[in-house]
Amino acid sequence: MLDQEIAELKRRLIEYAGLVENMISKSVEGLVGKDHDLLNEVARRDEPRANDFEIELEEQCTILIAKFQPTAKDLRTIMMIAQMNNDLERMADLAVNIVESALFLIERPQVKPFIDIPKMAETVKSMVKDAIDSFIREDSQKARGVCERDNRVDEYQDQITRELITYIASNPSTIERSFQLIRVANSLERIADLSTNICEDAIFIIEGRLIKHGKDDLEEDNS
Q1: Domains in the chain: ranges and CATH
Q2: Residue 222 pLDDT more than 70?
Q3: Dihedral, CA of residue 178, residue 180, residue 181 and residue 187, to nearest 10
Q4: Is residue 223 scored above 90 in pLDDT?
């Protein structure tokens, strides 16, 4: 019975992650395509749905722990789903931050061509998807691949920030628009960090190996 409940919990988690991926896609596509409707869809339709998912999953995790009093791997799995639920909620909020910046930017002249932000967003979306997959499939190799991609996202963020600072220095009238673009890049980088956190936890669940903060220590699993 508990196995079935956990399987359903995982299914809903996958649905939630899919919604968050779409929010990220639409927020950046709306920015690049200057699409008000797409951006408003994220803020008015997708964000409330994400909030509903977050509340539902939190309640279900609490109910399962109270009802079944799980131990060992089952308990760790439910606790990790609760943490991932938290992380997905924060990702959804960051996607809305991108929408807010995009709605400001599309009403004003473009500072520079959109080259790195769409590429950065594609990498980040793949990290979100693979982070959830690595947990569901118990695939520590895929989880490590996500952690490695975080460096690529950091490079995109640095490149975008450097370029925009150059634009600001040469044309101070771009300050506000440039800072909004930096906010978009920072939001994407934070989503990547949260994906990495999920993968670090997944590796611990799968292997009993702690890799947070640069550590890679084998932990004893007494289950």
Answers
A1: 2-218 (1.20.58.220)
A2: no
A3: 150
A4: no
